[in-house]
Amino acid sequence: MTSGLVSFCRVFKKSSPNCKITVYLGKRDFVDHLDQVDPVDGVILVDPEYLKDRKVYVTLTCAFRYGREDLDVLGLSFRKDLYISTFQAFPPIPEERKPNTRLQERLLKKLGQHAHPFHFTIPQNLPCSVTLQPGPEDTGKLSIVLHCLCSLILRSFDYEIRAFCARSVEEKIHKRNSVRLVIRKVQYAPEKPGPQPMVETTRSFLMSDRSLHLEASLDKELYYHGEPINVNVHVTNNSTKTVKRVKTSVRQYADICLFSTAQYKCPVAQLEADDQVSSSSTFCKVYTLTPTLNSNREKRGLALDGKLKHEDTNLASSTIVKDGCNKEVLGVLVSYRVKVKLVVSRGGDVSVELPFVLMHPKPADLSSSRPASVLTGCIHSVSSFLHSSFTQDDDLVFEDFARLRLKGTTDDKDEDY
């Protein structure tokens, strides 16, 4: 290794409000590789004087929410657990023991005898972490409650690790004496993208044997977040009508497959050009669209990766479904399409749609399991959601996650993401 360069391993940690329990994780994003999901393994450190004769438990929960926790009013719960797994970290159960990872071994050596490892396996058929963006009309607590009562709008799918000490797992857990840490289940772009999208259609008009032909294509099927999309449009107008305008847009589709089916459809990039195509002529042009969250923050029902509080949040990635998998168990299926529409004089508009995939590229080092845009922006935006307190020991670097408060609220709730 070159002199002067220091390689280090990042470790995320979070302590309970009373500082008696601390959880250590090597990453917070866990990748769904379609054939398997990254295992969740970490270490929990407990103050022995606080533990006494109790046991140490860690739970992994996948839940969907119909609103924030501070809206659980009137005896109504807006959270439903889809999956719960419990691991007894201390005293360990022999049949549940697994070989420790290298990071766990190093943490156990550094933290001492009161540190205990834990392991979880996320089932493949659980959904990826997705949040549906609330609209401007949903900012008030009362409006969200009433809205949820009327339509039960899904808010998010979350994965949460909770660590606590208790005599039994059924014992009531107090926030002061427990650690809650939200993790994410993510997917990355496939290594082999599909074929180049191309579609064409021909429209004939009443009382005329002459037609209007539209052909549209994309330069590729797979795009990364923030990458411009080039839409190739070719029009052959043999009809007697005139094409007055050309509209191109990128639309996000979020199919909710949970108990009942529903679909959100949101335009995330639009372009309208006054390009005219007169009768008996041809037209060819490339339109460029770039779908981003920045221009869509007020749109209700928009699917996002993770939660809304962070600067690194982006439009939700396309959902990749394994062959033979039941789509109904995946919760939310996100897809994208480019729509090209020709506005024709005296009616009879012509349109086509081109499906494509929008995702993060697979990082070169999957040990961090962070989307590329997150890794790039983390250096600049880390102060907004992390304390800049790095404690380096050998090649381990510990990062303390700050407790965030949602703007506009006055409670002292612990925000975990």
UniProtKB/TrEMBL annotation:
Domain of life: Eukaryota
Subcellular location: Cytoplasm
Transmembrane segment boundaries: none
UniProt keyword annotations, A-Z: Cytoplasm, Sensory transduction
Protein name, as recorded: Arrestin, beta 2a
GO BP terms: G protein-coupled receptor internalization; nervous system development; positive regulation of ERK1 and ERK2 cascade; signal transduction
One Pfam family here: Arrestin_N
InterPro entries: Arrestin, Arrestin-like_C, Arrestin-like_N, Arrestin_C-like, Arrestin_CS, Arrestin_N, Ig_E-set
Organism: Electrophorus electricus
One GO cellular component, as annotated: cytoplasm
Primary location: cytoplasm
GO MF annotations in UniProt: angiotensin receptor binding
Domain Arrestin C-terminal-like: residue ranges: 208-363
Family to which the UniProt record says this protein belongs: Belongs to the arrestin family.
